[in-house]
Design a protein that fits this description.
alpha/beta; 5-stranded parallel β-sheet; globular; binds flavin-adenine dinucleotide
Length: 493
């Protein structure tokens, strides 16, 4: 049996461990923390339960597939709840609407804001579907950097046509073409943040993101998002994968450009293959000790995706008007992204996302209370004065929420946790604390993510948010699957 070591039990690493184990490999997973999940962790604060990172599940088929590969039925592992109200949007002028999973009803909601928007939605989603079918699907599921993949003419032509969709346009421009009301353009611009990008720069092809949400639905998990890595960990263990928690990998060992194993605090262990679910740049700089490798130098120049500041608030009352997911828009969206990506600071007036899982799972908060996960987009960490930025952001958030809800929110916060970009880097080794690897602020970015198989070092593979196809739960699970397929193809004999 060939032996593989996986560095990191994030969702990408867990997925790779399952897909590789079922191919007959002997798989060991090393995780620096004492639990699986990486960014998808959980915490309890004074009787309130919080998912630390991801809050919304999209592309449910990706999750179903990985459980199925492990011999499990997702519906026996998790209770997926398709959200009828995907999100309640508080628009910048104080009006609000609900993004409903029933598209006719959602169209009615849009129509109330601006006449003709129902028709715009239908046309917009048709265009988005075209982009997804043309190349989006293939881009997400195939190792696009492999010559063998590109040599398939149908694949290559699809990718070229995909990259060529509205080539010089941005998400904002295409949204403005379809929606005539600035408030609705802002709503659809928001999807750029799903991969940590700027709607005024990210290419129009990103309209595949709203497509997957409105076509496949947005889901919550009754047991909490953290149940996903917990169950995948258990399923992998049942397949024979061995997990070592609290075991930081110190070094990836190679000889003549070929992987020979890894070094732990306790010493060297030999492996035929190493898959890194840790950040690509961190892997080059710290684990391979190759900070000057061409790939590392190239990666360092790429713009990181945005990061986030999260407040975890225990709220001592309920808000019937809110849904599981809620967005409170700022009045100047361009200024917000300029602050984050150009000035690398927090916007004066942030857009605020509030996720409340106790709406689905009342036991996540004490009786008649709610657990608020409050996320603000933030710049990647470059040693800013985070104490100052967090304190200002907290004040701005409370001001915005209090104004929009007509309630002094501060007086209802009974317990609080905070996550900052440096915390994200410290917890998961994500360079600059970015949430999704590199940003997608250029057309090229999609192709500049690190390949899943190293061409320079035989036996080295990459999964997770900083590798192809990028960040977000479904994408990192797909990256783990792509990695396992490549390992089998290139290191199987
Ligand atoms: C606040 C926040 C909100 C988000 N919201 C969403 C959302 O709503 N929907 C969505 O789909 N996605 C969301 N995401 C993104 C999603 O969480 C990530 O893209 C995904 O979970 C990353 O998985 P990964 O495989 O890249 O590994 P990570 O989660 O980055 O984990 C990597 C693991 O590797 C371990 N590791 C690193 N170095 C070593 C070493 N040397 N030795 C051993 N172990 C090591 C780390 O401890 C960590 O556990 C969000 C993320 C955050 C932080």
């Amino acid at each position: 049996m060939k032996k593989a070591a996986i560095i990191g039990a994030g969702l990408g690493g867990l997925s790779a461990s399952i897909y590789l184990s079922i191919k007959g490999w002997d798989v060991d997973v090393y995780e620096a923390q004492f639990f699986p999940g990486g960014k998808a962790a959980e915490e309890y604060l004074d009787g309130y339960r919080f998912d630390i990172g991801p809050s919304l599940v999209t592309m449910p088929w990706v999750f179903a597939d990985v459980f199925k590969a492990a011999g499990k039925n997702i519906n026996e592992e998790l209770t997926l709840i398709k959200l009828k109200e995907i999100c309640t949007y508080y628009l910048s002028d104080g009006t609000h609407l609900k993004a409903l999973s029933d598209l006719e009803d959602f169209g009615d909601e849009l129509e109330k804001i601006h006449e003709g928007s129902q028709e715009s939605l239908i046309e917009y989603l048709k265009e988005a579907k075209k982009a997804y079918k043309l190349g989006g699907e293939l881009f997400l599921t195939k190792p696009i950097h492999e010559t063998r993949t590109l040599l398939k003419l149908s694949t290559l032509s699809k990718l070229i046509r995909f990259a060529g969709i509205h080539p010089l346009s941005t998400l904002n421009k295409i949204n403005s073409k379809f929606f005539k009301d600035a408030r609705l353009v802002q709503l659809f611009n928001r999807y750029a943040t799903y991969n940590g990008s700027d709607p005024y720069q990210t290419p129009a092809t990103m309209l595949i993101i709203p497509f997957v949400e409105y076509d496949g639905g947005g889901y919550g998990i009754k047991e909490g998002i953290y149940e996903i890595p917990k169950r995948l960990h258990k399923a992998a263990e049942e397949l024979g994968v061995k997990f070592y928690f609290g075991e930081k990998v110190m070094k990836i060992n190679k000889e003549k450009k070929k992987i020979i194993g890894i070094t732990l605090n306790s010493g060297f262990k030999d492996y035929d293959v190493v898959i890194s679910d840790a950040d690509v740049l961190y892997t080059y700089e710290e684990l391979l000790e190759l900070p000057d490798a061409k790939k590392a130098r190239r990666y360092r120049k790429l713009e990181p995706s945005s990061s986030g500041i999260v407040f975890y608030w225990g709220i001592n009352r309920t808000f019937e008007e809110l849904s599981v997911n809620n967005i409170f828009f700022s009045s100047n969206y361009p200024a917000e992204f300029q602050a984050i990506f150009e000035n690398k600071t927090m916007p004066k007036e942030p857009t605020v996302y509030v996720n409340i899982t106790s709406k689905l799972t009342p036991s996540d908060a004490p009786k008649d209370c709610e657990n608020w996960f409050v996320l603000l987009n933030a710049p990647a960490d470059e040693n800013q004065d985070w104490d100052f930025l967090v304190s200002n952001a907290r004040k701005a958030t409370i001001k915005l929420l209090s104004k929009r809800l007509g309630v002094d929110i501060k007086s209802h916060i009974v317990t609080e946790g905070v996550l900052t970009p440096p915390d994200i880097e410290r917890r998961t080794s994500s360079t600059h604390g970015s949430l999704y690897g590199i940003s997608s602020n250029t057309t090229k970015a999609a192709f500049l993510r690190h390949r899943n198989r190293s061409k320079e070092i035989t036996g080295l593979y990459f999964c997770g948010g900083s590798a192809h196809p990028g960040g977000g739960m479904p994408l990192v699970i797909l990256s783990g699957k792509i990695c396992a397929e490549l390992v089998e193809k290139y290191s199987g004999d």
